[in-house]
From TrEMBL:
Protein name (Swiss-Prot/TrEMBL): Ionic transporter y4hA
Keywords in alphabetical order: Membrane, Transmembrane, Transmembrane helix
PANTHER family with a match to the protein in the record: SODIUM-POTASSIUM/PROTON ANTIPORTER CHAA, SODIUM-POTASSIUM_PROTON ANTIPORTER CHAA
Residues that span the membrane, as ranges: 12-29, 35-54, 66-90, 102-123, 135-155, 167-185, 227-248, 254-275, 296-319, 331-349, 356-372
Superkingdom of this protein's organism: Bacteria
Compartment(s) where it occurs, according to its Swiss-Prot or TrEMBL record: Membrane
Membrane topology, from the record: Multi-pass membrane protein
Species: Nocardioides deserti
Predominant cellular place of this UniProt entry's protein: membrane
UniProt domain Sodium/calcium exchanger membrane region: residue ranges: 34-188, 229-371
Short name of any one Pfam family annotated for the protein: Na_Ca_ex
InterPro entries given in the database record: Alkaline_pH_Ca-Antiporter, NaCa_Exmemb
Coiled-coil stretches noted in the UniProt entry, renumbered to this chain: none
Length: 373
């Protein structure tokens, strides 16, 4: 059953985003006291849950794949703003912040969101099914984007170290936008049927498509309710990213206290920002709608690269200091393993719990090696 639509002004789903936004505004300048940090953390959790609720309301109205696309793009647009804001603030790790955050988002989506979705869905329904044609094209686009923007800088010679030269960065930005826009048109216009949930037989083989709105039993929300949920979704996501930024100094202090690399800060913030998509993916997987979960996972990875790199390329015109997008050796190895495992997972069009477990172990390896490189 899809999330119920917003019915009144005192529903928790209306109150929580507003309260989270108020907490964000009230604590923006002063948030050092432990009690204030606790309030920020509580508001962050509430904003995440509210974002998931409103994303499901909107998705129920517009159907798939538009629903998952809206959530992925909304989160990523605000995430890009957070990256630019933190880069302009200066400080340690500025040159690699964009790379570390985007790479963390890619690993969390390809292994975390995909892995937990496959595991939850398969444990509950024995086998999960999805359309390999649509999911395969999404994975192909993610691999191309990651390779062009984060692998190539590690091997080019025009720029210094792990940096692109100016012309190379411009090319990577344009190529990223072309790939992303092309995929969105494929997903929503030319081949939309490849990205809607599928029905399957007892062996997990695809037999057809499920209803477009994703729920045979509940009527879709009205236009007014949908617009309200869309507005509250934006408010919730702004609150999630803003509150995550307020918590970032505390996260940085904790990272320094344990002697972990600065890149861990990007990992933690990526985990917080991607929480709404992760929860939405798990809830869809539990309803045997893994196609929606994969749309969210691969769509988020794609948007994270395809929207961030062009934005950073433009921002680099006035940002001081180097911009390192190239991956380190350990990151390259993890990405290569993830790509191989993902291809084998997607090619079958169905998955058991083991595939989900493999992806989650890879996520665990990424998180562990981020702390202990």
């Amino acid at each position: 059953m899809s999330a119920p639509a917003v019915r009144g002004p005192f529903q928790w789903s209306v109150v929580v985003p507003v309260v989270a936004a108020v907490v964000l505004a009230a604590t923006w300048l002063h948030h050092e006291h432990w009690a204030v940090l606790v309030a920020i953390g509580a508001a962050l959790v509430g904003a995440v849950l509210a974002a998931v609720h409103h994303a499901e309301v909107v998705a129920h109205k517009v159907g798939e794949p538009f629903g998952s696309l809206i959530l992925a793009v909304a989160v990523t647009v605000i995430e890009v703003g957070l990256i630019v804001m933190l880069m302009t603030s200066g400080g340690e790790g500025t040159s690699t912040y964009a790379r570390d955050t985007v790479f963390a988002a890619v690993m969390i989506t390809l292994n975390g969101i995909v892995g937990i979705s496959l595991l939850v869905g398969a444990l509950k329904h024995h086998l999960v099914s999805f359309n390999p044609s649509g999911t395969g094209s999404a994975l192909t686009t993610v691999v191309a984007l990651a390779s062009l923007t984060m692998v190539l800088p590690s091997f080019t010679t025009s720029g210094q170290g792990l940096e692109f030269s100016g012309s190379q960065l411009a090319f990577a930005a344009v190529a990223s936008l072309v790939l992303y826009v092309g995929f969105v048109l494929t997903q929503t216009v030319r081949h939309r049927d490849f990205f809607v949930p599928v029905s399957s037989d007892e062996y997990g083989l695809m037999t057809g498509l499920l209803d477009a709105d994703g729920d045979d039993h509940a009527d879709p929300p009205s236009r007014r309710e949908t617009l309200l949920s869309l507005a509250l979704l934006v408010v919730s996501l702004v609150a999630v990213v803003g509150l995550a930024k307020l918590l970032s100094p505390t996260i940085e202090d904790a990272v320094k206290a344990v002697g972990a690399p600065y890149a861990v800060v990007g990992v933690v913030i990526a985990l917080l920002v991607l929480a709404p998509e992760s929860i939405a993916a798990v809830r869809n997987a539990s309803r045997d709608r893994v196609q929606v979960s994969l749309n969210l996972g691969y769509g988020s990875a794609m948007a994270s690269i395809g929207l961030t790199v062009p934005t950073i390329a433009v921002a680099s015109i006035w940002l001081d200091g180097p911009l390192e997008l190239g991956l380190e050796t350990t990151q390259l190895v993890l990405l290569c393993i993830t790509v191989v495992v993902s291809v084998l997972t997607v090619a079958q069009g169905r998955a058991k719990s083991q595939q989900g477990l493999v992806h989650l172990v890879l996520l665990g390896a990424f998180l562990f090696l981020s702390v202990v490189p």
